[in-house]
Amino acid sequence: MSDDAAHAQADQLKQQGNDAYKKREFQQARDLYQQAWDTFQDVTYLNNLAAVYFEEGDYDKAIETCEKAVEEGRERRADFKLIAKAFGRIGSSYVRKEDYDNGIKYLQKSLTEHRTPDVLAKLKDAEKQAAEKARLAYIDPAKADAAREEGNTAFRNGDFATAVTHYAESIKRNPEDPRGYTNRAAAYNKLMALPEALKDAEKAIEIDPAFVKGYIRKSHVLFAMKEFDKALAAIETAAEKDTAQAHTKEITQQFSKVTSSMASSRAGETDEQTYARAMRDPEVQQIMADPAFQSILQQAQQDPKSLQQHMMQNADVRKKVEVLVRAGIIKTGPR
């Protein structure tokens, strides 16, 4: 049989294999692709055979077949796209085996041969999975506690930069413990890295919305940022969350400090100055730009009791009113 005739016959077998593959008749597809390769040595048939093994979950066989495809392809000077495809499937097979180092290695080899969006996406996903696996492997609550204690020691000694380093290690070792974040927020606060401190306090609250220390720490940071109305909101929330009254003294002291500073900063303000100051806050701007809420405020000017009714009926309205009360725009009303 001539090469052309053999190639044509092999292509027919490949097409039959493709039909079986689409029907998920994998054993039949395997046999047909193998027959195609035995009839004519085109690397495409090996790549297709490897695809069957991959779908069957036989990743070792898929890797072995793809390695043969690369070897035969190099020898026969096959299209570099076919070599890239074989490398890509080797990489995907290793990823399925959770061998991310080899998976990333072969996906990168595939991109070196021929760059495609599909393989690039698989590489990024593999790198993400590898990072997550490493992160999870690093978690150790006991070591997290030890690192946090080292941070506490450094904090007490006034070495706040070192404390941050130890608290960061504690967070890596146990990222679901909010204490690492509030402790690091305290150290950042001492270093006047206030945006970082606020981010950590909010992360602690995100992890555990009932964690009172998160709200206390947030209030301290906002106080340092001179955002007294937001600091007041945070410490009021801390009081609400502290149902066991385990932090009453700390909350009371912070509440007193915030309200005193707020009163001092606003002493002698005219209504126009109060409004101008409050409108520098993006949250206040958003509330005041809400047409529906503006309608409620206009109604309240004619009927003050209507505002209380809206607040009782709608939690969102109540929150907005509380923001404006703390900002000083609304001078009277329930707190």
UniProtKB/TrEMBL annotation:
Region (Disordered) location: 1-20
TPR repeats: 43-76, 84-117, 144-177, 178-211
Keyword Cytoplasm set for record: yes
Presence of keyword Signal: no
Compartmental location: Cytoplasm
Record domain STI1: where: 281-321
Keywords, ordered alphabetically: Cytoplasm, Repeat, TPR repeat
GO (cellular component) term, any one: cytoplasm
GO molecular function: Hsp90 protein binding
Cited PANTHER family: STRESS-INDUCED-PHOSPHOPROTEIN 1, TPR REPEAT CONTAINING PROTEIN
Protein name: Stress-induced-phospho protein 1
